[in-house]
Write a structure and sequence with these properties.
two-stranded antiparallel sheet, 134 residues, alpha+beta, two-stranded antiparallel ribbon, 14% strand
Length: 134
């Protein structure tokens, strides 16, 4: 596992905090002080959206870990009862929906059973954007 991934497990918002720290120090740098106002405004808007995207990603990552832990803790019969007979749990599926602030990576679990439509339990919680904006 990469160092960042280990840090993200400890504090999922660490990357957003680091980005924000850099974001607030950049405008006072000598190179930026000489730029036209509209250039500074454009960079600030772009980097503000990236900060919002990082915050959303930091929110989604612990949700994915919680979903996996909750589903893995259930025995197959209990999973099947909750999902119409789907008992096979597969972890680590990803979608990359486009949101208002940019593309994020949503990690989810899948429940399967032969002859049945695949079930993504997180879709009900995350809402239709997880399905429609890919």
């Amino acid at each position: 596992m990469e160092d960042y991934e280990q840090a993200a497990l400890a504090d999922p918002f660490a990357r957003a905090v680091s980005f924000f720290t850099q974001l607030i120090s950049d405008p006072s740098g000598p190179a930026v002080l000489d730029l036209p106002r509209q250039d500074v405004e454009e960079v600030a808007a772009e980097r503000g959206r990236e900060l919002a995207r990082l915050l959303l990603q930091a929110h989604l990552d612990p949700r994915a870990r919680r979903e996996e832990a909750e589903l893995a803790a259930l025995d197959p019969c209990a999973r099947g009862a909750l999902t119409g007979g789907r008992t096979r749990l597969q972890r680590g599926h990803h979608r990359e929906p486009t949101t208002l602030v940019g593309t994020v990576r949503v990690t989810r679990c899948v429940l399967r059973s032969p002859g049945q439509v695949t079930c993504y339990p997180a879709d009900e919680v995350l809402g239709s954007w997880a399905l429609l904006r890919e």
